[in-house]
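S1.2 Input.
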Amino acid sequence: MGFKKKVSFFNRSLLKDWLTVLSPISVLVTCISIAISIPDEYKFSTFMIILFVFASIYVYLWVRANLLVERKLTINNSTVTIKVGDVFEESGLKVVAFNEYFDTQVDNKIISETTLNGIYLKTKIQDIEALDRSIEQDEHLNSDGIKVGFNETRSQGKKERYKLGTIFCHDDYLLTAFSKFDRENRAYLHMNDYINFLLNFWNEVDIVYNGKSIVIPLLGSGLTRFKNYEMITDQELLELLIWSFKVSKIKFTYPSMVSIIIHESKKDKVNFYKIKEQTNGL
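S1.3 Output.
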C-alpha cells in the first residue's frame, strides 16, 4: 500500500475504536433483523455482506490511522495540536532553538544555513548586529541565574553562556537556548539536559506568552549527539515534549493554544495514532 505502516494491523487501540464504531451499527442491524424476516436462502449472503462491511470499516480505520498527519489533544484544559507543517507559516509566537550562547553566526560551522535556526537568521533578520545588541542588553537575559558561565576558550562565536530553556523574545519569535556546544562547535545534549531544558522552557513560556498561541518545532529532532542516549527517536522526543507540557501545568485559555509542528521530512518517523494511545487520560 502507498503509505508507511506505522500502526500494526491488529493494534489494540485500533481494535477498540473498531468495536466502538460497530456498536451502534450492530444495534441497528439487530433491530432490522427483528423487524424484517430474512428468507432462509438469503441469510448466508446477508451474513457475508455484513461481515464484508465490518471488515471494510476496520481496514478503513487502519489505513486512516497510518495516514494521520494531525492530532489534537486536551492537556491541562489546553488544546495541543500536533501536525505536519512549516513553523514559519504558522500564526502565533514561533519558537526557534539556538545554542546556549545565542550565537548568530550562520557560516555552516557555528550555525548551518539549512537548520531552522539558520533559516530564521538568514531570512527573518535584516540586521544581525542589532539582534546581537538586543540579546546582550536584554533585561531578562541579564537577570540573576540566567547567565551560567563565560567561555574564554571559544575562538569563534560568542562566549557568554545562558541557562538552557532561557527565552529571548524578538517580535513574533521566541529564541531559546537549547543545545550545548563542544570544543568543535558541535551541538550536543545529555538526556538530563534535555529534560531540564523542557521544564525551564515551559516555565519561561508561561511568563512571556501573554495569551498568544505558541508554535514549537520538534525540539531535538536532527540533533545526533544525545550523549549516552544515542538511539532516541523523533517519536520519543515528541512524547517527552508532550509529557513536559503536562507536568508544567501551564493553561492556555481559548483561543490560544500550543502547536507542535513536524517537518514534512519527519512525518514518516512520527506515529500520530500512537500519540492518542500514549496520552489517554491526560
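S1.4 Remarks. The chain has two domains: 12-67, 70-279.
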